[in-house]
Amino acid sequence: MENIEKRDLYDINRKLTGKTIFKGEAIPDGKYITVVLVFIQNSEGKFLIQKRSKIKNGKFATTGGHPKAGEDSIQGILTEVKEEIGLDLNPKALQLYYSGRSDKDKVFWDDYYIKMDVPNIENLVSQKEEVDSVCWLSIDEIEALMKEDKFFKNDYEEFEILLTWLKKGTQIL
After folding, report:
1. DSSP character for 88?
2. What's the CA gap between 28 and 82, in Å, rounded?
3. Closest Cα partner for 110 from 19, 38, 28, 24?
């Protein structure tokens, strides 16, 4: 199933081109795909973090991925969270805190934040190809993992953007 997953291609203005590529295929020059991720924060201020499987580098990260062909950004993050950690998110509670473009990586980024408590995370069903385990971590614990090179760098950069956004807003760290 992995190799039949398709992704929509966008132009530099994030308009659908009507073309797709298969997961793993090179992104053609002048075209982009979308990357989505979400940081889930509980009422204690901790974040739901996953330890990625060994084949996915084994580092800690937040949940994210690529929307499948036909999915928009919100549908994509809902699908990724359900597939990877077996959790249903309320799309109305999702807040887009960052949207950007990387010409080097040929991607558009959409980063989401949601405040929710998830009881009994040990009962979540993880997608074994992607995720070894999930845990709640504080900001300090996440920063410590990054210093030890145990947190996925791309996700940590998006986490830093989130912390800046949270400090500017009315959200409570």
Report:
1. -
2. 29
3. 38
The residue extents of the domains of the chain are: 2-167
| Segments of the chain assigned E as strands | 6-10, 16-22, 33-41, 47-52, 60-61, 63-65, 95-102, 107-115, 131-137
Handedness of CA 19, 25, 27, 28 (dihedral sign): negative
**Is 39:116 a contact under the CB 8 Å cutoff?**
no
Q: Is residue 173 predicted with pLDDT exceeding 70?
A: no
CATH topology of domain 2-167: Nucleoside Triphosphate Pyrophosphohydrolase (3.90.79)
Positive or negative, the CA dihedral 138, 140, 143, 149 is: negative
Cβ atoms within 10 Å of 129's Cβ, excluding its own: 11
Q: What is the pLDDT of residue 171?
A: 53
**What's the pTM value of the predicted model, to 2 decimals?**
0.92
| Phi and psi at residue 11, to the nearest 5° | -90, 180
Q: Contact at 8 Å (CB) between 79 and 130? A: no
